[in-house]
Design brief:
By secondary structure, the chain is an alpha+beta fold. It is about 45% helix and about 20% strand. The chain folds into two domains: about 55 residues, no CATH class; about 150 residues, Histidine kinase-like ATPase, C-terminal domain (Heat Shock Protein 90, 2-Layer Sandwich). It has five helices and seven strands, in the order ααβαββαββαββ. It has a five-stranded mixed β-sheet, covered by helices on one side. It has a two-stranded antiparallel sheet with strand order 1-3. α1 runs antiparallel to α2, α3 runs parallel beside α4 and α4 runs antiparallel to α5.
């Protein structure tokens, strides 16, 4: 079976039960109207729709992108609200902020794929700080650098050893016990398809630095 055919079948088989779950949630909403007032309930619905859309995209021809104008502050707020509950559950301090000059900025992107890229970075950051002795902190922030939008995902985890950096974005290369080695490669590919880039700056405390950290920066051109 060819890779594209396998991915298409996988997304199709997974999309069906998710559609059923979405239907059950809609039925529950009718039976218990009070849940509509919960912000968490609304977020669950948005996240479910995003997952189904992601699977639809996986069935599309490889490399196809649907570029549309997206108000950046709306995109930023949506992904922040999506991750806040899970970060809180894991005891992680989750900080989100963007510079004032980005207010009103509209970016021409494939919203679903950009969300996928930032999601992969946030998941990695959360995994990096989980289980460490000091309080875990993940910061999602965005700034404008000349004609580029810079989306940063920074964590105060143990940092990435220097010897791992060379092949960090290579597919199926992972140094995590439960990792697949796909997330960072996908995020970099999405950044490049948008005419941007994905870079990393990291420091390990054992190198003599006062504190360890990892900071991924996803850059997109502002036209």
């Amino acid at each position: 079976m060819q890779k594209d055919e396998y991915i298409s079948r996988f997304s199709h088989e997974l999309r069906n039960p998710l559609t059923l779950i979405r239907g059950s949630l809609q039925l529950l909403e009718k039976e218990c109207p009070a849940v509509r007032e919960s912000d968490l309930w609304k977020q669950i619905g948005k996240d479910m729709d995003d997952v189904i859309q992601l699977l639809n995209d996986m069935s599309a021809p490889f490399g196809s992108y649907r570029m549309t104008p997206v108000r950046f502050t709306d995109f930023f707020s949506e992904i922040s609200a999506s991750f806040a509950p899970s970060m809180k559950t894991r005891g992680i301090c989750f900080v989100t902020e963007f510079s004032d000059e980005l207010s009103g900025t509209v970016i021409n992107v494939d919203r679903q794929k950009l969300r996928q890229a930032v999601t992969n970075l946030l998941v990695n950051a959360a995994d990096a700080v989980s289980g460490q002795a000091s309080p875990g902190k993940v910061t999602l922030y965005a700034v404008k650098d000349r004609q580029e939008l810079c989306i940063h995902v920074r964590d105060n985890g143990p940092g990435i050893p220097q010897e791992y950096l060379a092949d960090l974005f290579e597919p199926f290369v992972t140094h995590k016990s439960n990792g697949t080695g796909l997330g960072l490669g996908i995020a970099r590919r999405i950044a490049r398809q948008h005419g941007g880039s994905l870079t990393v700056d990291s420091c390990c405390a054992h190198t003599g630095a006062p504190a360890s950290y990892t900071d991924f920066c996803l850059r997109l051109p502002l036209h």
